[in-house]
Amino acid sequence: MEDVFLLYARIAAYGFRRHSAYRAAALAGAFTNSVFGILRAYVLIALWQARPGLAGYDVTDAVTFCFLSQAFIGPMQVFGGGLQLAGRVRSGDVAVDLLRPASLQLWSLADDLGRAAYLFLLRSLPPTFLGAALFGIVVPAGPAAWAAFAASFTLGVLVSFALRYLTALSCFWIVDDQGVQSLSLVLTLFLSGMVLPLNLFPGWFGELTRTLPWAAMVQVPADVYLGKRDVLEALAFQISWAAALLALGALATRAARRKVVVQGG
Amino acid sequence: MIEVDRAGRSFTVGRGSARRTVHAVRDLSFTVGAGEFVGYLGPNGAGKSTTIKMLTGVLAPTSGRLRVAGLDPTRRRTALARRIGVVFGQRTTLWWDLPLKDSFQLIRYLYKVDRIDFRRRLDELAGLLDLGSFMDTPVRQLSLGQRMRGDVTAALLHDPAVLVLDEPTIGLDVVSKAAMRDFLRRLNAERGTTVLLTTHDLGDIEKLCRRVMLIDHGRLGFDGTLDELRATGPDGDSLEEVVARLYTGSAPGTPAPP
Q: Do B71 and B90 share a structural domain?
């Protein structure tokens, strides 16, 4: 058991190091995320000045939400991808991965957590500090609030991985995953709260979006940060979705192992 | 060490009215004893890679049964992985962005190799395959020959009883090729590792294999010693001519109806 943990901890550490080979790309990402954060902040400020108290946020909450969501883009890979798996299935290299005496899903997860940790440092901190410096943002009060946010953020990464893993795994059944990728991108952008806080959506549609798994990625961690949501209820929501999606991923992995043609030679 | 008993693998391809069943391997039977060095030949698309994927547990056979190192590959994939080594010449098991030595460390954890055994085996392999000068180089910067030596090392760190090689000399220059062959010959002779070698390079076969199996259209077309293989053609024919005749001559059966 301890061995297994050590193995996956190593893989996570190597995932971190592997991504550090692409520091320039990460810094360019941080720059883009920060600039878009500023643009979005002005839009939201205008909106909240016209409609104060919208969605239960004041202007500072809205600006904080904006920069937090920008900070989530890297670690939660909001625009999709981040896993090498899809490409490896398409090229047939996954045959090598399937040979290993390890779980494909846990392996990918460990690697992805390493990636997320690296991108947290390089792509989450800069836009957050910039937002704080330019506009002023909400800061959680006390260690308990920070711990709650850390847990919620990590669960957000976990849900994001589970969804992206399923998307990547679809390559086993369909030759090209571009359709699934773009569908997933649109769903993630709108249903995570990335484009607009989900609290803005009215009626049953709003209710629905707040119960779907994508909400666990941006909306819920941001609300936990802002102190707008009961912590235990929020974490339970995220844990349920993470567990359900990871279980689905495990089933899909098993089905892929059984049925499917490994491409090429 | 390897037993294949009437194994078959079919795939369903296409959809709608174009849906049909392709038999990549059918009714394939052979055994390989411990310590043998067997060449596994066949034209492109003959079913070699499918066989290897079944032997290593990546693909489940649709009929028949297989045993490798005493285990059913599909059911005991993880246990089997610790007893066999596999090299896909056209793919790599190494981590692209990490230094070569880091890949070996990960493999040590993955295969639960004892630290002391690992150190000893790595030193030995690094010496034999001359890895010293590029241990710290990220894999993406290695030449093909260096990467292949790294891949072979990776496949042997857990001291497997069986080594399965899928085109391990593809793309290598004459010197690298000779070094690789020399290494494989010694591995088989000195450690008694059973080797199954798939290749299109008949030089590999001539230099290394005592026994040759030839698969075509998913069936075993020839199984015998290198001399017996030569004897199927007229005297004076090169191995290339003999094999080419077998590839084209073994009547191409029409694909089975769905």
A: no
